[in-house]
Structures are given as structure tokens and as C-alpha cells.
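Support request, please re-run this one:
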Amino acid sequence: MRQFIRAIFCILIIAFCSCDNADRNIYKRNYTDEELRQLEAKVTLIDRLDNITANQYTDTYFQLGDAYYQHKQCDAATVAFEKGLRLDPWNYLYLLKLALLEFSNKGYPKAYRRLTVVADNCMDEKLCGLAKRYMTKREFKDINKAIITLPDMRSYSLYLVSFNKTSAVLTSAVAARLAQDFRIHVEILSDTLIPDRKNQNDPREELFNETIAMSKSSSSRAEYQTMLKQVGLASDRNLTLADKAKIVHYLCGKEKDGEQLWLSIIAIPEQYDAEILLEQLEERYKYLLGNERVLGVLALTSEDIYSTGLNYVFGSARPKLGVVSYARFMDENTPIDIAVKRTVMQAFSTTGFMIEIPRCSTPNCARAFPNSLEEHDRKDDILCDECLENLKVKYREL
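Re-run finished. Output below.
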């Protein structure tokens, strides 16, 4: 074990040289061109999966990053390390490796932030000591003037819970990133809550209504009445949701690929009222929320949610309470690292409102308001200087 730690220590020291001068022998093993291609192919497959464990993901991403680094493909290595760290943010060795790459590319603010995480939290004395020593390098001499560093607020806690079963990968990633970027204590509670169905909304009904209205307006009266008889209805007065479903199913059957269209319609999930879920959290966790050292309770859910006046929302918050839905962040074709990034960004936004800092005006900040998933994806999963300044002010008030 001591030899292993010593080897890592030597690797990290040597790795601070520039990428162009990287020694291919600094890693435990060398990757051949064929092994690199195999890892690339494996990651391509993994990107399309959502039902394997974080360790299986991270091992492959980190191996690919190591292979890219040895082949002097430093930009590709950076991307691979970032993907792995989105799934395993507390991997101190790879936080350091990524910091080294960012340092060699003169990305000093990012490198300094990662080194700070290692220095603050890593229990391995050698890795922690290495991070602290590099934080004193001359390139970082004026870094505090260039970046905003939050105070250590780990004496304050944020609790993370789930509505229904949620992804363990996403939950752990959100908890880790909140702890690192907000510099607070984050604890995942074992509670799995059943969401309150009050005010539950079925978006299919609106779709049914629109489809039936279009059919009625584009058909003659006789044709429309014939259609109603075909589905066993005498008229379209006082239609139940089941009646409307019969009509739309019948209409889908008249279309090419109609059955597939119908399956897509009935697969649309019901939505939960975000405000009701926040009320549920408030009632359930009164015993925590009354503690001045508790910043709040944040719930994750795979269920789709909406709010008054909005047909869906990614998250909702009030002081000390928040809920984040990742229902629209992933499907069977979404790479897991993208799902993690989307969920982390929304958790940053929601947590900011829980702590009562305003939304910022920086378009690529994690907390910037997105009008669509496309806009959400254009953002970075980090807090901007405006948000960091607002957090510093809020922390001083606590």
C-alpha cells in the first residue's frame, strides 16, 4: 500500500509538467493504440446506458482519460476526466489529475478550485499535502484576485431526499457537487417519500381535447357521428378521460404507424404539483427546518412536475425547501454524464433559491434561467462570479 501511495505521489509530481513534454511512463501502465480504440468504443456504449453503477462508468472514463494523456491527446483526456468526475466527484486522485491538465493549459482558476476541494476534504495526507503545495505555486500568486473563494461553511447542512425511487448515480453526484461548490455539509437521507397526488395533472387530457377538436372541425357532422358510434359513444357531451382516450386511440388507428403514435401518447407521464411537494417536504421535515444550522431539504424526483402557469418545470423552491425533477433530463438515448450535468445545474439553481440568493444575469452560469432543455445544455455546471458573490454575502449573514 505504501508503495502504491508513493507511486501515485511521484506520478502527480511529474504530471505537472506540460502536456507536450508528458512522460508516457508516469502511469501505472501504458495503453497501446488498440487499447485506446477499445476504450473509446466502450465509452461510446456506456454513454448510452443508464442502468449500471457509477464505479463501472468512472473506471472506464478514467482509464480512457489516462490513455488519452499518454497519447498526448490532452483535450480529449480533459473531457474524459470531466465525465468521470461528474459521476464520482470525490475521486481525489482524478481531481488532481484534471487540475494538472488545467494547470498545464493555464486554466488556473479551474485548477485552483479543484485543488481547494482536495486540500479541504482529502484524508490522504500525501495527496492533500500535494494539493496544498501546488496551491502556493507562483502561477496562483494572484489567484484570489481572479477568483472568488467561498468560506468553509461545512458547519451548515443541506439534506437530500427522494420522491419515489431515484437514480443513485444522480443522487450521489448532486450531493457531492453541492458540497464542493457551495462548501457546505450535504447529507443524503435514506427516506424515500411517496409524492402527494393532490392537484396531479394529466397532460394527455389536453392532448386528447386538442385532437378531438381538430377531428371534429375537419370532419362532416355525419363522419364525426359515425366515428363516435365506432367507439361506442352516442355523443361527445360530458366525455370522461377514458372516453377521450377511446376516441384518440381510434383516430390514431387511421394513421400510418398509428399504434406507435398511440403508445407514445399513453407513455406521457402524469405530473405532480411542485408546490404540493414542497408543502409535503415542509410538513415531513419540520424537525430539521427549525434548526438554524440547517440550510434546507432538497428533494430529487424522476417524476415530471409543473407549477401554476407553467406546463412543466425542472425545479421549484422556497426558503429552505426545494424539489428538482430530472424527468426531462434523460431518456434511453441520453449519455449518463449529460444527465448528471443537467441535474447538477438544476440542483445548483434550486439550492440557490433555498438559501435565498437571487438568480444571476450570467447566461452560461449553472443557475441562469433556461427556456428550454437546449438552453439548459448551453450552460456550464459551475457557479458564476455573481452567484459566488451573492453566496458570500448570504454566508456572512448566517
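Residues 1-26, 50-54 have pLDDT under 50 and may be disordered. The longest strand covers residues 153-163.
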